[in-house]
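A student in our group prepared the protein record below, which I am reviewing. What it holds is a sequence and that sequence's fold in token form. My question to you is simply how this chain folds and whether the tokens agree. Do not assume that whoever made the record got everything right. I have pasted the whole thing underneath without changing anything:
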Amino acid sequence: MNLQWLRHGNCTRTGIKGAGLALAALMISTWTCTGANAWAQIATRIQLSTAQQSASDSPQTVFTAKVADVSGSPVNTGTVSFESAKGSIGSAVVENGAATLTVDSLPPAANSITAVYQGSANYASSSAAVTAQATAAPAVPDFTVTATPSSLTVSPGGFGTTVISITPINGFSEMVTLSCSGNPAPSTCVFSPTTVIPANGAVATSTLQIQTQGAAGKTTLLVHPSEQQRNSSGHVAYAVVLPGILALLGIGALRKRSGWAGLRALGFVALLAASGFGLSACNVRYDYLNKPPAANPGIAAGTYTMTLAAYGNDGTSVTSHTINLTLTVN
């Protein structure tokens, strides 16, 4: 038997009574409601807090929204949306009276976050705001490079020395390779060592020596031209005439001894070879006197700006820095 036995606003409770049972012994009862918000929703309150945490060296911001009814009992249904002036940063389901959202970074200028409880069939919506600082970006390992001193003064043929310091930042501990460019010719950069590793936060150093070259050789002839011509003509005469005279004398002497024909021919060949060697030696000396070695003027006086580069490589990315060095040659 169907009974309509209680009304509440736009809702009616009906029941099915078994035969012979009193009204209080209804076996099944249901509410049938018409219209929106037939039952008044229970008011809620929300409390929002924020905290910082680190995971894998990356700082994160954690928002926790606690949702309860007016009596303080936790709400275990519904969703909380976390909003900033730039829009939503995420949402979380309410479980055991709380909704938690963890973010790696906040939008720029998002210094106020509002937690909005969306409500449910039985609970009304509510909201709360909290001031939050934007999460700082993860610290990137890096290094700085300095030279002490950063200016050197040398004389041609001399050298200057400076100490290169590699200072790690944010735990940088990779190998750093040093090089220089822009050094004037003729000069060289010598690092000792060429690579350094700033381990355990300690400063790593390398000594840079800039070596210069002074003037070498002459730009004038080694012998005065008139003296050179006089000596050259005399040497040529000795180199050609003397072996020829010896060759003729040898041939004349050997003719008187007919039994020595083979020896006479051998002596003639030897004399010709001596003449050839004499001319060759004369030619070398002539070239040396007339074509002296090229002169090397050495490094020119002046002030030069050099570039020192330091490269660090962790296998996936390269970190580089450059500084200027000033070299003055007197």
Summary: Confidence is low (pLDDT under 50) at residues 1-11, 20-31, 219-228.
